[in-house]
Design goal:
Elements (H helix, E strand, L loop, with lengths): L2 H14 L2 H17 L1 H5 L2 E3 L11 H9 L3 E8 L3 E6 L6 E3 L5 E3 L12 E4 L3 E3 L4 E2 L5 H8 L5 E6 L4 E2 L13 E4 L1
Parallel strand pairs: 1-2, 1-6, 6-9, 7-10, 9-11
Antiparallel strand pairs: 2-3, 4-5, 7-8
Length: about 180
């Protein structure tokens, strides 16, 4: 299958997934993530703000902050750039260029300061290849990270495929956590 075919198939499945199943699996994924040594060691963690049926990150963000982690979320610019922005629990949100929620007030963080980046994806394979929504935002962002910054993709089990077509522009994640 082509990237486009995979993307269409998985996005439809995400849309059809029951909210209860999404919530239950997201909690299992959160538990696996929080037990991972890469998460335990991290001081500054960048989460994505979930939308469109993705693995739900709201509870993860709240719980990570309660554990004393500095939480960062992406702010998207129209030039295919993602900027890491510090997240505060009482922050108000605005809609970004593609309808994704972003903090209204933006306190940017240096890329070098990130210990862990939690990465969304439409699909992954077990080698860490990632298929996004097709705009290239995360690939551009991940290329700029230090090799010391860990990357973890979160997915539901049906989003993890045996193989995903990858090009030189595509950037792998270090690990995929799924349920």
């Amino acid at each position: 299958m082509t990237k486009s075919q995979i993307r269409n198939k998985i996005l439809l499945r995400l849309k059809k997934q029951k909210e209860e199943d999404s919530r239950k699996k997201s909690r299992l994924i959160k538990n696996k993530l929080f037990k991972a040594s890469v998460f335990k060691k991290a001081k500054i963690v960048m989460f994505y703000v979930s939308f469109g049926g993705e693995v739900q990150t709201q509870e993860m963000i709240k719980d990570a902050q309660e554990l004393g982690k500095i939480v960062v979320v992406p702010v998207c610019k129209k030039n295919r750039a993602i900027k890491p922005c510090r997240f505060h629990t009482r922050a108000s949100f605005t809609k970004g260029p593609y309808g994704v929620c972003e903090p209204a007030s933006k306190k940017l963080i240096n890329l070098e300061d990130l210990d862990l980046v939690i990465t969304p994806g439409v699909a992954f394979d077990k080698k860490g290849n990632r298929l996004g929504r097709g705009k290239g935002y995360y690939d551009c962002f991940l290329k700029k990270l230090s090799h010391k910054t860990a990357t973890v993709g979160l997915a539901f089990d049906f989003q993890v495929l045996p193989d995903i077509p990858a090009t030189r522009q595509d950037v792998k994640v270090n690990r995929v956590i799924f349920a």
